[in-house]
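user: can you give me the structure for this one chain? tokens are fine.
assistant: on it. calling the predictor now.
[tool input]
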Amino acid sequence: MARPDIAAGNVKATAPAACPVCRAPAPQRFLSVEGRDYWRCGICEARFLDPSQRLSRQDEHAYYRHHENDVDDPRYRRFLAKLAQPLLEKLDPGRQGLDYGCGPGPALAAMMRDAGHDMAFYDPFSHPDASPLARTYDFITCTEAAEHFHQPADEFDRLDFMLRPGGWLAVMTCFQTDDARFADWQYRKDPTHVVFYRAATLRMMAAQRGWSCDIPVKDVALMRKPAP
């Protein structure tokens, strides 16, 4: 394994012009490990892979085919309940929702339907029909998807457009908390994971759009668009 090197002078990639998460200029050099270069934003605290080193769309799709997210797997449902339970406590009955980045098995959409909500779902690889993106929703879920976003600021703007006033955006992604362990962090080693968020990152993204942000448990953020 290559030794991680945080020394700025040893990161060879050209600095991106802006942070892809909050659009702040001049991200800082962070770390080079296993042939990959990472940057950090001093404003929103996100860490992200150098854009030139992302997988191609074809390779990314091929990697996703190895994921096994069975809609009926009780263990997977328990994992998703970490987000579903606090979100359901916020929702009135019979709301309309979108599972954004649902993957091949939209288990969370099934769980929300079981709870009485009407659900649509979208995934650029597994469910690429874009018609759900032309509608608006009372809530949107985004579980284990935000770390794949190549342009998070643009993606969150799209989610804002689809979210009705007073609506909820529920995001689940493994929060990055310890720079010293970043090189050996299993979440980093997934080649399709290109952006890593902290709780502070998601709070800032919410604030930029005028949303509130609650962190009910680690790795889950519930953001609310203000009602008129």
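assistant: here you go. The chain is about 25% helix and 25% strand. The chain has one domain: 57-224.
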